[in-house]
Design goal:
There is one protein chain. This protein has 273 residues and is of the alpha/beta class. The chain has two domains: 83 residues, 60s Ribosomal Protein L30, Chain: A (2-Layer Sandwich); 183 residues, Phosphoribosyl-aminoimidazole Synthetase, Chain A, domain 2 (Alpha-Beta Complex), CATH 3.90.650. 39% of the residues lie in helices and 23% in strands. It contains ten helices and ten strands. Strands 5-8-4-9-6-10-7 form a seven-stranded mixed β-sheet, with helices on both faces. Strands 2-1-3 form a three-stranded mixed β-sheet, with helices on one face. α2 links the parallel β1 and β2. The longest helix is centred in the first third of the chain and has 18 residues.
């Protein structure tokens, strides 16, 4: 994902913690999960763990230990436990018709990191993508607690369209305003240069004919299929409260945006205008 070990640890921790925030919960403690090559430099592992610990500290989470094994391939993650009030628990598939959809982080980190691995992404573009992945969803999630949120999820490996399909669940449809989608600064350039990830291709295949992307610019379609790491929250909120909630979220997430609304079920679950 990234070359710097500590940054890798920070992003991984932010990604793991996000699942708790997406359900309206508060993470309490975490355990490190490590697979590490026997002959690798232990200083690499120390940096990764330091990055994870730093992000846990920012989240107010107790890092209570962990488990490690030798492996041919380096892997790192966190098992996170949190708590949530039962009347504030967000499911990912219960939006109400008429709700407004808010996305709290820009899209495109999969494409930018792919370009960075090939050495073609500019330093500025890679830095922007890394900063987005490192940011905790904690701050946006805290804002949701005072509003009528009917559904929430975090946008990760299945891309925006995959997680929208998870949210609509064959019961409703989502109308998306493609001109309102937030995205990283120069991501269109990399898409035009054919930096399309394998995950993005699989996400397109998974969506099949459930989303009508044929009438939108091809780069916008690829952006919506792009798998995200530590992506933003996708929130369905009462339309009367959407502007006020967005304003609060933008205090931390400048690129957060209203990207669409939930409508009655139609032939396509995702309708892009």
């Amino acid at each position: 994902m990234v070359a710097d070990a500590k940054t890798f640890g920070e992003i991984t921790a932010a990604n793991a913690l996000s699942d708790i925030y997406a359900m309206g919960g508060k993470p309490l403690y975490a355990l490190n999960l490590v697979c590490f090559p026997k002959n690798a430099d232990n200083r690499l592992l120390s940096e990764i763990l330091a990055g994870g610990a730093e992000k846990c500290k920012e989240a107010g989470v107790v890092l209570a230990g962990g488990h490690s094994i030798y492996s041919d391939e380096l892997k790192y993650g966190l098992a996170v436990t949190g708590i949530v009030e039962t009347d504030r628990f967000y499911r990912n598939n219960t939006p109400h018709v008429g709700d407004t959809l808010i996305l709290t982080k820009p899209l495109g980190v999969g494409i930018i990191t792919a370009a960075d691995r090939d050495g073609v992404a500019s330093t500025e573009d890679a830095t922007e993508a890394i900063a987005s992945m490192k940011r905790l969803n904690k701050y946006a999630a805290e804002k949701l607690l005072s509003y009528d949120v009917s559904a929430c999820t975090d946008v990760t490996g299945f891309g925006l369209i995959g997680h929208l399909l998870e949210m609509t669940a064959g019961k409703v449809s989502a109308e998306i305003y493609c001109d309102s989608l937030p995205y990283l600064t120069n991501v269109k350039k990399y898409i035009d240069d054919d930096y399309i990830t394998g995950g993005g291709i699989r996400n397109r295949e998974f969506a099949g004919n459930r989303a009508n992307v044929s009438k939108v610019p091809s780069w916008i379609a690829e952006l919506m299929f792009d798998p995200q790491t530590s992506g933003g929250l996708l929130v369905a909120v009462d339309s009367k409260q959407a502007d006020e909630l967005l304003k609060e979220i933008q205090a931390e997430e400048k690129q957060a945006a209203i990207i669409g609304k939930i409508i009655r079920h139609e032939d396509k679950e995702i309708i892009i205008n």
